[in-house]
């Protein structure tokens, strides 16, 4: 028996379902891309800043070189310190260049003296003891512990990722609600044909399959439209974000695995649409005597 066209594309709520799915996939892809990009950036921050700290001495007079040499020697002799390297003024200027530019402003500013310190991850240094040793050399020596800033940054990153996950769940629920509404409307519009098939001996699974296959094709079509729009939006955002990539933001581009995950969103949307439509039809059929 040929399958009747129970849900024509040009009538009822079926006309709008592909566009609704496209919008849902677009927002889901944007939220997923933002979450994956944030996770990738925080991973880079963690790798760069873990087990590091900076010792700073404000710009001073002629005694600064001797104090810096003594501070560097004290750091290297402290248990738990893997290395301590005094940064040159050119290196400090290069670190400040993304924020202050490469003009003459950096050359006119009194730059502080910085010592880059790498800690031994297997033997953490006693920072309080280290601070006391440095204070004896010069009270102006200040320890900038990156772990405090990194911890706050990681908590913020995790909170944002959870918010994006909640957004994805809400988008999924909204998609299911739209599919349920559209499927019920199509079921009611073709109820006479459905009851006739039911009387002729068609099983509930067969009738539900007619709806689910139509929903699968519709969801996949809408998902591909949404993915195409997302690809254009992400390309535009990547061009705009290229100027922001640097010490603070790192590389904002997505990995190949992340891109594959985004490419699978239309398939996930189609499966969700098909399963929701099938469940809705089976529930409606159970009410038919």
Identify the notable features of this structure and list them briefly.
2 domains, 289 residues, 10 helices, 67% helix, alpha+beta, 8% strand, four-stranded antiparallel sheet
The SSE string, one letter per element, is HEHEHHEHEHHHHH
User: Could you describe the largest sheet, including whether it forms a barrel?
Assistant: 4 strands, antiparallel
Helix content: 55-70%
How far apart the termini lie comes to 24 Å
Q: In DSSP terms, counting alpha (H) and pi (I) runs of 4 or more, how many helices?
A: 10
Can you list the strand order of the major beta sheet?
2-3-1-4
Low-confidence stretches: none
- What is the strand content? 5-15%
Quickly count the domains: 2
